[in-house]
Amino acid sequence: MRDFRTDFIQFAIEQQVLLFGEYKTKAGRLSPYFFNAGLFHDGLSLAHLTRFYADAIQASELQFDVLFGPAYKGISLAAGTAIALADRGQNVPFAYNRKEAKDHGEGGTLVGAPLKGNVLIIDDVISAGTSVRESVNMIEDAGARPAGVVIALDRMERGKGQLSAVQEVELEYGIPVISIASLDDLVAYLETQPAMKNNLEAVARYRAEYGVH
């Protein structure tokens, strides 16, 4: 049986969400690959994507009470993954936030289910960790606890120091970060694709310079 991580990598390539070439990262590095989850922008691809999130969550066996998707990309991810989990018999509430506080109606910045118990944050990637930091603050202000973070792809590369952005979040907040796939999975996939040998070599060179293990 194929691993969902391998299926996700192949799916992201087929959807042209995972691209190979030369791309400048936020850190100013020239990366040989680029992942943009914002390009999952139709109903079918979002349905597939959120089923992969559900796969990763269930495989992790992480216990949580509420899914929380930070604005903006996390909103559709939280809703879609809640639907995917419900289809498998795991019905969980979800919530998200607004960037701007609403001053009428129910007011505030939080929308959806109340944040209580253990809250799992869902987002596309972790770059500087800003979105996670803001999410943790909102969860704790509501009297709940962050249970972990689930993302699509862990690039496994150094941040400003020797740790990756994912490792920094795990260390700072004491919570696990799970991903649908990681750079390890991407490399393993490329190793099975002779036509992508040049991409594999470029990724290996980049990893040797910026990667963490």
Automatic annotation (TrEMBL):
<comment type="pathway">
    <text>Pyrimidine metabolism; UMP biosynthesis via de novo pathway; UMP from orotate: step 1/2.</text>
</comment>
<feature type="binding site">
    <location>
        <position position="104"/>
    </location>
    <ligand>
        <name>5-phospho-alpha-D-ribose 1-diphosphate</name>
    </ligand>
</feature>
<dbReference type="GO" id="GO:0006207">
    <property type="term" value="P:'de novo' pyrimidine nucleobase biosynthetic process"/>
</dbReference>
<keyword id="KW-0665">Pyrimidine biosynthesis</keyword>
<protein>
    <recommendedName>
        <fullName>Orotate phosphoribosyltransferase</fullName>
        <ecNumber>2.4.2.10</ecNumber>
    </recommendedName>
</protein>
<feature type="binding site" description="in other chain">
    <location>
        <begin position="72"/>
        <end position="73"/>
    </location>
    <ligand>
        <name>5-phospho-alpha-D-ribose 1-diphosphate</name>
    </ligand>
</feature>
<comment type="subunit">
    <text>Homodimer.</text>
</comment>
<feature type="binding site">
    <location>
        <position position="155"/>
    </location>
    <ligand>
        <name>orotate</name>
    </ligand>
</feature>
<dbReference type="GO" id="GO:0000287">
    <property type="term" value="F:magnesium ion binding"/>
</dbReference>
<feature type="binding site" description="in other chain">
    <location>
        <position position="99"/>
    </location>
    <ligand>
        <name>5-phospho-alpha-D-ribose 1-diphosphate</name>
    </ligand>
</feature>
<dbReference type="InterPro" id="IPR004467">
    <property type="entry name" value="Or_phspho_trans_dom"/>
</dbReference>
<dbReference type="GO" id="GO:0005737">
    <property type="term" value="C:cytoplasm"/>
</dbReference>
<keyword id="KW-0460">Magnesium</keyword>
<feature type="binding site" description="in other chain">
    <location>
        <position position="26"/>
    </location>
    <ligand>
        <name>5-phospho-alpha-D-ribose 1-diphosphate</name>
    </ligand>
</feature>
<dbReference type="InterPro" id="IPR029057">
    <property type="entry name" value="PRTase-like"/>
</dbReference>
<feature type="binding site" description="in other chain">
    <location>
        <begin position="123"/>
        <end position="131"/>
    </location>
    <ligand>
        <name>5-phospho-alpha-D-ribose 1-diphosphate</name>
    </ligand>
</feature>
<comment type="function">
    <text>Catalyzes the transfer of a ribosyl phosphate group from 5-phosphoribose 1-diphosphate to orotate, leading to the formation of orotidine monophosphate (OMP).</text>
</comment>
<feature type="binding site">
    <location>
        <position position="102"/>
    </location>
    <ligand>
        <name>5-phospho-alpha-D-ribose 1-diphosphate</name>
    </ligand>
</feature>
<dbReference type="Pfam" id="PF00156">
    <property type="entry name" value="Pribosyltran"/>
</dbReference>
<comment type="similarity">
    <text>Belongs to the purine/pyrimidine phosphoribosyltransferase family. PyrE subfamily.</text>
</comment>
<dbReference type="GO" id="GO:0004588">
    <property type="term" value="F:orotate phosphoribosyltransferase activity"/>
</dbReference>
<feature type="domain" description="Phosphoribosyltransferase">
    <location>
        <begin position="45"/>
        <end position="160"/>
    </location>
</feature>
<feature type="binding site">
    <location>
        <begin position="34"/>
        <end position="35"/>
    </location>
    <ligand>
        <name>orotate</name>
    </ligand>
</feature>
<keyword id="KW-0808">Transferase</keyword>
<feature type="binding site">
    <location>
        <position position="98"/>
    </location>
    <ligand>
        <name>5-phospho-alpha-D-ribose 1-diphosphate</name>
    </ligand>
</feature>
<dbReference type="InterPro" id="IPR023031">
    <property type="entry name" value="OPRT"/>
</dbReference>
<keyword id="KW-0328">Glycosyltransferase</keyword>
<dbReference type="InterPro" id="IPR000836">
    <property type="entry name" value="PRTase_dom"/>
</dbReference>
<dbReference type="GO" id="GO:0044205">
    <property type="term" value="P:'de novo' UMP biosynthetic process"/>
</dbReference>
<dbReference type="GO" id="GO:0046132">
    <property type="term" value="P:pyrimidine ribonucleoside biosynthetic process"/>
</dbReference>
<feature type="binding site">
    <location>
        <position position="127"/>
    </location>
    <ligand>
        <name>orotate</name>
    </ligand>
</feature>
